[in-house]
Amino acid sequence: MATSVLVTGGSGFIGSYLVKALVDRGDDVRVLDNNLRGSAEKLDGYLDRIDFRQGDILDYKIVEDATKGVEVVYHLAYVNGTENFYSFPEKVLEIGVKGALNTLDAAIHCGVRRYVVTSSSEVYNQPKRIPTPEDERLVVPDVLNPRFSYGGGKIITELLAVHYAGKTELETVICRPHNVYGPNMGVGHVIPQFALRLRDMVEESTQDILQFPIIGTGEETRAFCYVLDAIDAILLAADHGEHRGIYHVGTEEEVSIRSLAEAVAKHRGIPIQIKVSENLSGAPSRRCPSIEKLRALGYEPRWALEQGIAETVDWYFSSGLSLPETTGVITR
After folding, report:
1. pTM for this one?
2. Is the distance from CB of 286 to CB of 332 less than 8 angstroms?
């Protein structure tokens, strides 16, 4: 029997992949998005199979109307992208906190059975344990640093999901994605920026070995999760996760940013020499989740990093997109 679901942020990167997966498995899908950072084009081939509603998550009446009649809410609407954290912290917080309150109020009022929210690895900032378990402490180390508008907003969202709805019948599940990547994820993240920078440098440079700039020492690490694995993880947590359960979405393959840049260049057969620089204020030096809780539900990543890089880098090389006007490549 089909489940009726609402996906907020459904025309964004992860949201659009989630919508397609939900439709493909037979769910009755409604999408709410204002296309601020997403695009209905990401749902090409699926728009005639869903109820797409363009509207602002900050307008409670719009959110409530979109929530009526659904059983499960997947709340993904937010402002992502590291550059946005520094440039528009007020908008990041407004959409994060008001969006969580509006979707929770609507879910409670409309009798939704289950509320699944995507949080973020940014809630840890600099975790003490690697791989990091879900019970690691959550930290906003400096309220004056705009970077933490995102992680702080996600912490508030988690608190609301657990405690604000705590005395109602609404079941809540929290997913914490770690560095999800893939084709068509925008240009505000490290792998797309590496790909676009490399493409532009090849077109403009006559050097045999390209001097490839990155932000940071290159020894900073992340664990990258291909978007199709991330969708499998979110659906598994949504379907089988415990009430108030928190689940990491990611992989345990920790790689340095230097080796990531080298892997991007190697895939395209382009020799590079890494040029390092000062890191962004507040950027964590390591990030790698433990995924044991999700493994206990049957999850195992299927995409090797080399496979995911190949798909993503080739997509960006042929995309026609431009590198944003920044001082260098950012690292989420």
Report:
1. 0.95
2. no
